[in-house]
Every structure is written in C-alpha cells, then in structure tokens.
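check this:
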Amino acid sequence: MIWSLLYSGLELLRNVHSGNEIHCFGFVYRFIVGKSATPFYYIVVLVQLTVITPWLIKIVKQNGIISRILWLVTPVYLVYLYTWNYIVGASPRLYETLFPAWFGFYYLGIQVRCGWKLKGNGFVVAATLLLSCVEAIGLRATGLDIGFYTSQITVGSFLYSVTIIGWLLKKNENNRSGCRLLSKIGDCSYGIFYIHMAVLMIVGRIIQSENWYIYWILRFMLTTSISYIIVHIGQMVLKSHKKLLRYIGFI
C-alpha cells in the first residue's frame, strides 16, 4: 500500500507538472487493481493466493484426486487466454491480475515445500528458451496481440520458468557458489520488486545509446545492480528495525 501510494503520488505530480487532466477515479482504480506501477498487479495476485493457501496445503497433504485436478487450473486458464486473444485480437482486461494465471507456480512451490523434488539442467533450460522464442514467432505470425505473445503468460514462457526453477534448485542442492549469490539477491528480491520501477525510470533517462540492444542490456544491468544495492544498504542500516523493514517491504 505504501509503495502504491508513492507511485500514485509520483504519477500525480508528473501529470500536474505536464499540465495533463487529472482523473481521480483513474488513480483509485489503478490503486485497487495494482496498476499504480506496472508490476504491482502481483500484489493483488499474492493476496488472492494467500487467502487460499491454508486450503491448498490441506489438499496437498491429503494427496487425493483434488490435488491432481488443481494442476489443471493454470493450463485451462491459458487455453481461455489463447482462445480469447485469437478471437478478439487482444487480451482480456486484468487477465494477469487473476490468480489462475500464476496458480501453477504457487502450487508447485507448495508441492516442493511439502517434499517434491524438482530438478533440471542447462540443456532443458536452453530447449525451453528456444521453444518460447519459436512460440512467440508463431503467435505473431498468427496475428495475436504483441502484448500477449511477448508477455510472461504464455506456455513457452511458463515452461522456461519452471525449468529455470528446477535447474537452480538442483544447483542449490549441490551447494554451488552461484546459488549462494542468488540466495543473497533473493533476500533482497521483495524490496527490489518495489523500487526497481523508480530506478528504471531514472536509469532510462541517463543512458544514451543509439544501439537498441546495448541500451536495453545497460538498462537491465544498471537497474538490477542499483536496486539490489539500495535494498541491501537499507537492510544493513535498518537491521535493528525489523518492523520498519517489513513495513517498507525490504524483508
């Protein structure tokens, strides 16, 4: 809520400075549905998933027919999205904000926490990355909306993400040094999630390059590094104020 209010305030100041018309209802709507900043929709998703978590854990431990049926939630939702995009030519409103889109990852995480072993390797990761790219090209040729086939919510993208997760879990079991670094970044990930959009806006104005690829690579590297440094320093400075760190989402 704090960060949504902050980003909404920044957007309001920008509109005032630019002399644009201010629509109060629009600000309230974006705040409620997690659109104060581009990735904040996932806060709304997380609230939905948190509400059903006790029930999910119970179902997983029972290991009955319902626990198997639940694996179909995200695939069925993907079928709906693909069909809608093909017929209408655009994605449904707030399609990424509804929990079925991300349920598969959350459910997989609960399964792993309850004892599942998920493993992968670099070859499978490379194969699913290639599959994701081929799928995007195919969806583009089919005439689907660019916002959809370049989004995270596609079959290829989901498969690639799952293989990455499995690969990292395998490396973590082997106690690889690279995973220790990822673990440190993971400790700051929630804070990075909140501040990276603000960092991204500043970095985007600083970087000057005619080469599109160099521009995006530099923007990614600088945004990631600066966001991590800010959160890590914040954690060290406020290490004796755990409540404040939780309040601002840095732990």
The chain is about 75% helix and 0% strand. The chain has a mean pLDDT of 82. The longest helix spans residues 212-237. The radius of gyration is 20 Å.
